[in-house]
Amino acid sequence: KQWYQRRVRGFLMGPIMAQQLGVPFVAIRKKGKLPRECYTVKYEKEYGADEFDVQVDSLKEGESVAIVDDLLATGGTLEAAKKLCDMCKAHVMAHCVVFELAFFRWKRAVERHPPLFHSCSIEAYFVLIF
Q: What number is the average pLDDT over the span 121-127?
């Protein structure tokens, strides 16, 4: 089993979680950040498009993984991470997020994927005053 984490903020929690579970950590990064040959997927976010990479040799066919993210808004990044796992022929057991922004309509994007676990659902809008 692998602990699959995306983005830079994941480096704060992903490796620690993987270590505590006794499983390897695999990073998903923005396009061009990883050193070896990569699979790439393009995805839509709430404010535009982006691309993620995962190293081709990071997962073995049939390995079980959990995709972990800090924030779930539209579901685009989780869906992109799932596509990368599919390209590696790995099996996604679950999506795990710390915060879910319930006012975004993410459910349509991830409802057909493995179970979603989250620790906090936020149903209010944030207002920043400068």
A: 56
The reply to whether 36 belongs to the active site is: no
The one catalytic residue in 9, 29, 63, 79 is 9
Q: Are 107 and 101 in contact (CB under 8 A)?
A: no
- The model carries a pTM of 0.79
- The tokens for 125 are 């809008």
Residue found under tokens 């692998």? 2
Catalytic residue among 29, 36, 37, 46: 46
Q: How far is CA 63 from CA 54, 58, 85, in A?
A: 15, 10, 9
**Dihedral, CA of residue 25, residue 31, residue 33 and residue 37, to nearest 10:** 70
